[in-house]
Structures
1.
Amino acid sequence: MRQSPEFGCHVSNVVSCLERSRACEGDMMLPSNIPVTPTRNNTASIIAEYKTSVQSSYENVKEYNSRPGENVLLSERYTDLLMVECHRKPEEREEEIRSRGQSLQDILRSRSSEAYSPITVEQLFRPDDRGCIPKAVILQGHPGYGKSFTSQKIVLDWASGTLFKELFHLVLHLECKEINGISGECSLVDLLNYSTEDVLRDQKIKVLFLVDGFDELKVSLVDAGSALPKDPFTKAPVQATLKALLKGHILPQCKLLLTTRSTATMTLSSLVTDSQRFVDILGFTEDGVKDYFHSFFQDEHKADALFEYVRTNETLYTSCFIPVICWVTCTVFRAQERKGAQLTKELTNTSIYANFVSILPEHHSPSLSVSVPVLLSSLGRLAEKGMKEKCVLFTKKDVLSTVSDPECTVSHLTTGPFLCELSCKRVFRTEEMFSFMHLSFQEFFVALHYNLDQEGEKRLLCLLNSQQHWESQRQPVIQFLFGLVNKEMQNLEFLQSTLFSSYIRRHLEKWVLEKIADHKLVQSRLMFILYCLHELHEDEFVRTVMDNVGPLCFLYTPLTKVDCWVLRYCLLCCTTIKKLKLSECEMTAEMLRMLQPALSKCQVLSLDLEAVDDDDIWTFLSTLMKGHKLKKLSLDVVKGSLEDVGMFISSLADKHILTGQSNLYPRAPGHVNLALVIGVQNQRKCREMKALLVDGTLW
């Protein structure tokens, strides 16, 4: 399917020479539709030319948002995937779907153990336990998991001599989405379009056919009939030609590598009658995500910093095991960088998921015969059914029950890009089950359904007026709801039909103002409100909410880096922060630097800096004093002895940072706690520093 004009010229010259030599080889007695066998030297020459063409065609790939002339090197961008040969049990699949963050990565790490038969690309055609090499390898993966990317990398590496060098003389690539554009009868050679027909008549040549995207075929191979061609040169309907290849009627000695989504695996398996190997792509492991960030940014320091940010964001880290989500995330980071903005400033979980949903129908289901809003609405009903019943695996009957629009059928849902199919083995049979890629996508579709459905407003009010909104399984849905009503989100094509977003937004705004007015809100619920505001990401409304907030206190609860980013965004939207207290939150110097621009807006600030070095404290205080809001500051630091305390206070005085008094009290054997309570008056620099020691004397 990828042919350079130069290669066609070279091959035609070689073929002409071969045709002139046929009479000398006595091949004129063969049937006219069967080409003669070339000499080994000519075969090698044709294959060498073909490899050169493949390397030229496959070394660069386009990304989803590439403009004309823009591409990336496949060898630099490709990242190894976790693949397993073992069929997992339904409860194991459910465990993968429900787990989040580090817990999910721990599970994926366990899937790379010998118990699950992990396999690499190089091992796809390794002998099985009986020493047999499979005729066909079925490589299954959900949309966006890297099947086509892997296919291209396999072809490129073979042509470069780094893969399957001893296994196959020739690797031929068939892309099903391109076959869809072929009408009428054609031979296998016609489908290849590589001018390698003269090589295929050499029965000693070991050939691998890589058929990519079987699930994308518009024609049904099951209905192709039994009159199948027997050689690669006989013309027949395209479905008959493909079926003949899969069933071994054409070139029975060749091997097959076929990629497909889970929704077409059973059909494909029934078409390949010889020995098969089933391989499931699970996505990126933690190391894979990190490697992808490095390959994308080509800057070790930047890649490490962004990976650490993602790793602390449970929702984002959960979804980044899907390769296309990794790409979306990195692309958003890069867009921020090009605008000169803080790389993580406008990154919300909703924006990542919404862009993912926007990409899939266009690039992974271009022939979808149902409108995207109708498809999304049906999927939303299924997702909401699962949320109510606390279910992540669905039967076909469950899927059928969610279809209400005559335009959308069960087939549209099960063959579309968003549902995954798994075959569950029962005692005497197998059963089709369906799921979303992960529970977080199911939660996103629930939120999306509220915006798409005319009954969504009613159901939202029911949710907000009950205590269910505080339940952990409902909170991600509410956060996605806030993100979806963001005005910029409405620019995405599939969200432009969300006619009820304005009503949803009005109810969400009213709800959050009522909740934030409760100054007795426990800190876990307060942090959840801040996360909702961060997903909304509209400064004016966030400022309105934050200006009504009472004292902000987070005590005895470790903060994550993402917590600090959320807190920073919300605090920066404030006109003034009356009081902020962070105690026993395991604050680090990095977190302090993240929060510093916002802390200068505080009037009263109390911080626990036990894990922060003196140099970082001094830098922080020097910067903090440049603000104009601070009236009172309380710091809590730990020193090993009273002598250390004296040196610390002397350093503060020598640096002319602050004025006020300090209190000391015993913390633990061998340690002394220094509580600095500093009154700041008119931003004057330090002229005097006093410390009240435990015995009541002044230091």
2.
Amino acid sequence: MASTSTKTSSSSSNLPHKYDVFLSFRGEDTRTNFVDHLYAGLVANGFHTFRDDEQLERGGEIASQLLDAIEESRVFIVVFSENYADSRWCLNELLAIIDTMARDVSKIVLPIFYHVNPSDVRHQRGSYATRHTSPVEDADDDEVAMIEDWKYALTEVANFSGYPVDPNTHEFQLLENIISEISSRINRGPLHVGTNLVGVDIRLNEIKKLMSIKSKDVPEDVPEDVLMVGICGLDGVGKSTMAKLIYNELCDEFKSKSFLDKVGDVSKGPHGLLDLQQQLLCDISPRGEQKISTLDQGIRVLQRKLRCEKVLLVIDGVNAKEQLEKLAGGHDWFAEGSRIFITSRDKSLLEHKVDKLYELPELNRCEALELFSWHALGRSFPNVDFYNISRHFVEYCQGLPLALKVLGNFLCNKQHNEWERELSNLDKEPNVEILDVFKVSFDGLPLTSKAIFLDIACFFKGEYKDFIIKILKSHDFDAEGGIRFLQNRCLLTISNGKVGMHNLIQKLGHKIVRDESLRDKGIRSRLWHHIDVQDVLEERMKGTKSIEGIFLDLLKLDNINLSTQAMTDMTLLRLLKIFLGSEVVSGEEDCKVSITSDFKFPSGNLCYLYWHGYPLNSLPSNFDPAKLVELNMPYSNIRKFGLGKMVSNLTAIILSHSKDLAMVSNFSSTPNLEKLILEGCTSLREIDPSIGDLERLGLLDLKECKSLGSLPDSICNLKSLKTLYLSGCSELNGLPKDLGNMTHLTELYANRTATGAPPSPIRRIREFLIRPFSGLQGERAYPSLSSLPGLSLLRELDLSDCYWWDAEIPDDFWRLYSLEKLNLSGNPITIMPASIKELSRLKVLVLGRCKRLQSLPKLPPSLQELDAHECVSLSYVVEVSLSLSLSLSL
């Protein structure tokens, strides 16, 4: 196969056939009656048919021309009549047919038993027991071999399903049936998939590899079982095209095959599923005269027919479970060797149905550029003048083949300045033809899923899934089920815990909201564009109860005067975020939002409140946080914080870098708090003892709280606390003596504090992670490990810059048998004890900046990395493994 970016066009694996049908018959028996009528019917129906007495010129090389005609024909109709086996000509013709069929499995043979018994033909009895099928006694070896070949050919062809003709047969109806079957078989050739396809070869190969996988619950000793493969992906990614390519690739290997196109759309009709059942029946059983009247009858008929022989079945565009139940109920419907491919945008329909699921990916950048170039410029790669702007269009489409084709075709034959104008317009008004494809998926969503979709498209793309679920479920949304539903519909993705969405699908969400009101922005449900938000909040267009969410990026505005009056009617506001759209924040940002001291939040429905640089000293007295899940106010001017009423939904309070914040109190009103972040609150002097009531608190971040002198003893009651940050709390004089009661604590960061030695004991700590005590200030700040039994399971320990001298290293230090990484950098040690070799699992040893270190003993054989940079006194190393990664800077 060609590489991923190879251009592929629609074609069959074989050359086109010159003749649709080849007629083989004994002229004296049937030329002037049955065959004549059959030939006329085939020609009348548009089939190019070979009949030897008409096609061959007199005096020509009959045998050679006959062989050519047989090779160039697709369907063979063999009319077995009474004297057929008397003719060497007919038998040689039949032998040539068998030979060409052996070389090309796509060819079809259809026997007609004209006033003869099929069993006589099959076993060479009756009129078929002739001198050409029964050798005489003195026949030579060549003649005997030829007769055996003729007999084999007769038996082979007679074994195919065919049509018997006897005196009681209505020949007119029979001819109709034969022509109908030929029509069905010929018209089921390769499907048209267009030209200039890019990137399909590697994807087709990946799907073909799945065919070697056995289906579910099938024993290994079954050689060829039924296999169902699902293909899913977002709209416009090329699922139908891939389904047609698979069908074209495999169709010649199957006598029975069917491609059911746009099943979801067809099913919407009054008799949609019934028509699909009838089509499937006609495809796999062309001579079937049975008319399906009900869906249940269709199931019974299809089960019976599909079990007869292996089939290739492609069901494209499924969007409901019922469609699969009525068309391909289960593996037991099909004969061994059958292959069923199902495409759908809904992953959940396929996951429990198919044996293997293939998610069709978007094109990579190179493939996308090539496909776009073919449609926009008629070449595989853009010329210099159009290269850069082509890349912008490709980036906009994000690898979606449909979008690349639509935009490419639209731009074809346009000038460069027209391309620039169209690119500029796309942000304001996305291409409707592209968005309409996704709109079908959106229209089929339940109401709750539509709301979740719009929230994500307008506000939460790129956020962590767990965060979104926590925020949205406070309004009785089944957020977890809704996100899973949207993911199954390929309307969003989950990667590394974050929710992603294709740019064009996001633009659909934006357009849906804008279309709620083209002129009056105040009655839209969601506002995220800074100009729209400014118009509403500054009362150019007063907000209404329609507004559910407002996100404002302050970086895009110089300043804004927020009017309480503009927000008065926003009684259904759920989401409010006023933020700086930059990950780099200096902490000295000017407040860009001006509000009066009597400002009031409009809604008790707020579940998410984020306000960077909140300008008032406190929250409004009427603030109702009843439904609030997260309150995030970094760099605020708040001085005292405490919620007077019970707020059971609140799980996170973030007031980081609020430099005027001096007190946080009344934690008993937030019993379900899980995260408290007060980093950089340099005026904070105390923590209210009620913090001990927070049974679910898992993260407490007090980094750089430089005025914090102590922690309340009640902090030791935090049984769920896993992570405690105290780094940079330079006034912190000590840690509570019962800190060891925090049974789930796994991370303690206390560097650059004034705590002295760490608390004793800290028990049941299963895994300290990175810098538990680094940088403890004071000349004798090392821990007594004998009093810290929980540390015996440490895997990683950082004791850098702890002022350790040789004599101060505890004797039991080398009993940390589980240790894998040890950082002792920046300490004034001179000799590393020989007992270091007892650390049998140690992989990384960091001794950088130990400027007094003179020698190293034999190191553990497990060691993989040694960092001794700036160890300027180091002159003696007993043994270093050749495989060790060594960093020395003397």
3.
Amino acid sequence: MSQHPQAQQSANSVVEKTGHATATTHSLPSHPLQQSYPSSSVISQPPQNLSQTREHPPHHTGVESGGGGGGAKMKSPQSPRSGGNSPTPPPGRGTQQQQQQHGISYVHGTTAMSPRKKSCESPRGGGLGSPRTPRTNRAAQVRLQSKQRSLSATENTGQFDLQRPLSRGRSANQTDSPSRYRQKREKRANMKEEKQEYEEVPKLPLPSLQQIMDQYLDNLKPILDEKSYGVCKTSVEEFCAPGGVGDKAHQHLEEKREAEANWAYQYWMKDMYLGIRLPLPVNTNPGMVFPKINFRKPEDMLSWTSRAVAEFCRYKDRLDNRFMLQDRAATREPGQPMCMAQYFRLMTSYRKPGKEMDEILSSGEEGKDCEHIIVMRRGTLYYLPVKQAGKWKKLEDIYSSLLDIIEDTETSDIAPLENRICAVSASDRTTWGEVYENLMEDDVNKENLSKVGTALMIVCFDEETQNNSDVNKSMKDMFRQMLTGAGSKFNGTNRWFDKTLQLVVGKDGVCGLCYEHSVSEGIVPVQIIQDLVQKMGESWKNSIAYHPDSVQFQKLTWNLDDNHKEAICQTIQVLDNLDSDNDLEVFKFTHYGKEFIKSSRCSPDAWIQLSLQLTIYRMYGHLVPTYESASTRRFQLGRVDSIRSAHPEAAEFCSIMLQDHTKMEKRKYFEMAMKKQTKVMVDNILGYGLDIPLLGLREATKELGLWDKQAVFTDPAYTTLNNFLLSTSQVPVTLDSSFMGYGAVVPDGYGVSYNPYTSSIIFCICSFHSSSKTNSRTFATQLEKSLLELKQLFVK
């Protein structure tokens, strides 16, 4: 992990008066981005000086195989889814230095944040000196009353303490006695966390050439006829001959393994994510739905969001200080340390679009003096600092800034769709790469892009998708909102799909996460969200004091030309097509859950995988290439490999189940299939899977210039094997009625995630309406039958 000098920050505060409104722009520095591939490095942060502003309308779990959130590699590019001057540094701080890297200018230096002036404490008007036209609607009156109550409160919580949980039961007008305060302070001091020293984990293994190719042939058996299988077997024998292409490619990988932290990481990232040109929504980005929240009044939404942001900041502080305990394996060599790199990438990364290949950019893993988030509403972006001069903002400061941002969106013109540049992040990656490159040519746009990329996260305040009287919202509609924002007619243009963490907050209490998948597996954000929600409890029902002097934010404006606007309009059509074509269902199976499965002495994950195979067999009469993510975090920079559930034993079991055989006979074949499924799972999590080593051999063959001297990777069977018609993943979420899902990865396939509870299982099922071969409702119906039939094998 690389070291860097502590970044030193500043900004200028600029006030611009326009008509009847006073818009306050608080300029803060953004952190530079640099490529982190395969590992992150850190550079110091640039100062920014906005001397002018422009008015602009604007996928560690209980079951380690659950690598989480999104499934397999996408192999079909033709898929219908594609449907200023710097301020002078203070004395002793040195001069600024600029450098160019990946098309972004990095500046090293310092400035200091100006306090907010009294005359522009709030853009909301009232008694704070703003000439804004008075508001008369009920919502504005409620917010004004909330401010007045907060301003009259006597609570003074002091500096936001990142070592203690947020206040859960104290109202805004309560204070602690000195003795009680001292007791609490002493208790907190005794509970301080210690910096962790992480145990080094081993390098990813490389199976022998024979092991790899034996697995390859074994997985071809259920999907090929006898003649095609014979042709493949011959090409494999030639590939594995002593001194042959396979032997040379394998030796190349052995040398790579000695030289690199993870010999497969770059191959895998390019093949799975960075080289894929499809749009991110549905195809790549998973969506997570939280338990629905009963917001009683507008302030509740902001109270919940403020606390959520504060918890994310606390999590980031724990990572910065290395207070996070190292994850350890729970099964199969339990206690083995696991790689923690995904945690550190989660709030420091950005997927930059490219015309040919995307890049993973990083603001660095080390703690910084200044941090910020981006807030979005109605397609307008706001820059909100959450840490300055090494101190995290107080909860009240975050709440106050969010309150004023919401008011600014309600008193400003709504941005027309053609001005919402964020929409282009939903385009195919080549188009977005071209637009992104063009935006970088303008200094204002370039600075804005840097702010988005270096943000810890994005908060997306969504509009309601149905009227207030219709209080019941289906799990299906909530899932759709997280995946696509339900299209441009609702919240689809209120997303920036490249950003790793997008916290979605709806007025109606529908909240969740849309996250970019390339830097971590789903289980990492899931664990953070679970901790966040559980720690918050119902504390969001308590009032938070409004501090007008602490409000700081900047409304981002963009310089857009006709080409940009045309690209936005075209992308909106792409997004709407993705949204309407996505055939999604959320199916809650309530007849039993993992408790019954465990009582039958079976692995819940293996049980569910075989039920999915039986479902496919029932629908099509044969098995299809199946992907299930398996965590390889036991190794350096480990991500996932693929548990291929469509093995010969599974095919034989499915055939027996649909014939007239006794229960004992069916159970015999079920147990054989379970044994094979468990072996495949264990091989994968211990680094001896098929897909990663096979990918390595393919890429090594290219690098050595031996592509034309082999027939394994040019055989149609190889393409068929990697056309994952069934992409699956277990994403265990302990929160009640919460789940994560993703879209299908090929046009005629299914994307199926599942969350097993004690007495139920939630499945997220996605396919495409445009395919005549798939139907998500039919899949759910047949899946229910399969799960019930499996239970009968163990019921006397």
4.
Amino acid sequence: MCIRLSEELYQELRTALFERIRDKEPSIRIQAATALSRLQSADDEVDQTDGKTITKKLLWLLQHDPSASRDSDAVNRRVVYLKPMVQLQDFRDLSTEQRHKLLKWGLKDRDPLVRRAASNMISKEWIKHADNNLLEFLERMDVVGDGAVAEDMLYSFLDTRTDIVKSIKLDEPFWENLSTESALMAKVLIKFLKGTKDDEKLDEVLPTVTRLAFIIQHYNDIWQQAPKETEADYEFIMSQLLDIAKYLDYADEVGRRKMFVLLRDILMAPDMPDDHMISAVQLFKIISLDERDFVRTIIEIISDIEELSSFDEDMEMEGPSKKLKLSEITSIKTETGEVDQILLQKMLLQLKCLSICKFMLERTEESLQDNSTLYGVLNELIVPSVQSKEAVLREEGLHCLGLCCTLDKTLGHHNILLFAHCINNGHEQLQQKALMILFDLMMTYGVSTVETKLGGLEELRKLLENCVDHDNAEIQSVTVEGLSKLMLTRMFRDEYTLRMMLLLYFFPTSFDNEKIQQCLSYFFPAYAYSSGENQKLLAQVAIPALLNLCDTYVDLEKDEKMATPTRISDMLADWTDPRKIEVSNIATSNDEGIDTAIQADVAYEILKAIYHHSGIVRKTMVHMLLKMYISEASYQRLDKLKKMTDLITEKKPIKEAAVRNSFNRFVKTLDKYYDAVEKPAEGEAEDAATDNERHEDGGDGAAVEKESVATGGDDPSVAEEESMAATDDEERSVARKGSGAATDDERSVAERGSTAEKNSEAEYAMKSSSEDEDED
């Protein structure tokens, strides 16, 4: 249906949209850009205010507003690749960085329609800017600058344009005159054909093993002698050729031996970057007869490198990463302050041996006991490096030792305390490596193994808490990622740690830590919806954590940011919703079952918080209360909720009209469910109450402890309010069912006793929470 607009109305709409693309709200800017993209094909009129057409304005928006292609709405993200970017006169109007970001976001998008739109933009529109010449198109994309993005782009292109795939030929002149673009194209084409199982075309373009070995040798020689201006280009070509070698069939013994000699020479070369060494080790794994043969071959090469005694004064450093690390070496200078070249060479060779050993250990799974040749490199190379005074050698040595520990449980158990010591006392890089190793050991051998060696759960908690509170963001993110993996796999279940992670997710100190935010944004929904037991544990920590976060929000500094308590309560309500577990359909068979009324317990904790607090806490809790799913709660649970709402109405009425109205809506809903639920027989009332206490016994201690932490522990005023609540409960129980008063009184005494028993742990949790807030 086509609607005609008057010229006056069209100009008003156009002007309004021009203003809105500069709005402070990203969602409004994106909607305005979407509308303008539909007008640009029929409107090339220049805006008199800035002299730009609609297309140029959209281009400006993309260059200066990152929200356009990163919007939460898939439709908005897709529009970017359908209209504004398609109608660019030349994609080089965008900077190289902007092109790479745009392609990365589009081709890696979670929505398949966005990925398809980005792919079509490249293969059907942008290719026209290069006269449909694929190599010329790649030249304009700067493949060396960001090879990963260029590879994804080219793979997507080939997947869309199968007609071009059939026309590509890799003949002898092609291999003799490789450029960075043609080398990348050859690698991606072979990878694509391998993935699509197009064996006929693959046999046509893939060189033999012997031929490729000579090609690699040829370009390796050119690279070694290349001037600095072209050195990076030939290094890139070498990288692509080594990747191509991974797709070959090494049944040809002559070709296999030729490749073996070539790879050995590459690893022995003094100036080989890490990327090439990784590829060489991977290729050795492919061409070796078995894993034992692979390990033996690499260890022999390491031994040959260690025995190098000749020194080349023109020897280059081993790549940019090594140049940076060598600046940290302090013991290579003589008394006159000059660099000791012989000692420097030995350190370089030792560092190279450690790197090759690391790449080997990352690709072997055979136990140390079944592969005795590893013990030699462990004792002669790895252990001395761990004991070295130089930080760079200690880091690499510790990494290799950690990999060895994952291959031998006895060795791993023996070195747990060493890794813990490095975490507590090492420099930041060493701490990070040791922490990653410790998590690997827990994943491999179980948390109990590490816990026992460290001296118990409290020591493990203390170690992890120190890492979570670390000033280094990388160490924080490694800790969070490791804990998330352990808890998702149910290898570690701890209420205190879960609460700590919940607080960290919302605390202002981690608001800008993208790694932590991304990890926990996935963890909490996955954890809560995967198991009824997981959701129960999360429900136990939700309200105490929310109380702490409310206090943190009130005390925010001007330059600090965090989610609002209302937003946090929405997320907690969603995570503790038992209906989400049924939807996810991933609850395991050994799960104890889904408690469909778990939010009734959460609602009870919310009501206690409403009774004891006011202000933003009460407002937030009432807001969350309305989201609780209690329709399947038992009579005992609903009865507890009704008693608490009656107590709040009588003793602590809500004064704010809006909040009071929300609270009354919940009371009305509660009354409806309470009247409809089946009541126990009079003779069964006492037994039912006792069964309810047993059902909640596992969580009561924690609940009372958390209430103590949130309300201030043994504060007299709080104790007085609790006493009032208990008295009111007893009186109301006597009026309703006579003998039930004794049960209520026993429960009140049990709760106070539980509070006393848990007092020391509550004080510990309260102290930790106070320290966190003080730091913030």
